[in-house]
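thread: overnight batch results

M.L. [08:02]
morning all. the overnight job finished for the chain we discussed friday. pasting input first so we're all looking at the same thing
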Amino acid sequence: WRLNYRNHRKIIVVDGATGFTGGMNIGDNYLGRDHRVSYWRDMHLQLDGPAVEDLQRIFAEDWLHATGEILADPRYAPLAAARGDDLVQIIPSGPDMRWDPIHKLLFEAIVTAGQRVYITSPYFIPDATILQALTTSALRGVDVRLLLPGKSDLPLVRLAGRSYFEELLQAGVRIFEYQAGVLHAKTLVADGRYGSIGSANMDIRSFHLNFEVNAFVYSEALAGELEEIFLDDLRQAREITLAEERSEERRVGKECRSR
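M.L. [08:03]
and the structure it wrote out:
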């Protein structure tokens, strides 16, 4: 049963002052050294300042759970001075929390966006709430775009995600599939004002079963950079059209009936 309650967080804290979090794991394939897997496209965030204390606290809680050891030595947690003007929220979530906070914040970002919301996710199986948020925002004129993998290390998950495409496309959501490698970044940017980078995928497992952590940064500078990266990635992606998706569904249906 522990497979359904895995720690999916990615955290590095250095001297209590600098932290890293995002989508990147540690392994040869994530560095492009596994020749069975092509180029790996990921996203990570470096943080300096008080927000790092929250990352370290989450690590310490996970360490206690795994080892029974309390990291209480003051040298592990020096007070970090402010390093910038951006507001940062480090948000953990997991099955031990009542409100699924990452799910709630991503939902809020989608439904409150006034102009545009760009989402990158390697594993896309939204629950009914997120699906409704995406379609409703698109129907009211928000430029909603999804960047999803064109090829995946989990092909069955990719195929499951395609089952949502027709409804999303009908509502006006634009869907792109990344072609230059294996997409593994998990980001959201809304209205060029704030963004999220973390470990949580846009799927039911991340929202309700895994232990995850995301950084929500309220910064026009970072949001602008995230938008630039997203639009640059679209140059290496293929847009999925409604006509194409309906044609693919008919092809798969005929193939299943022939069997």
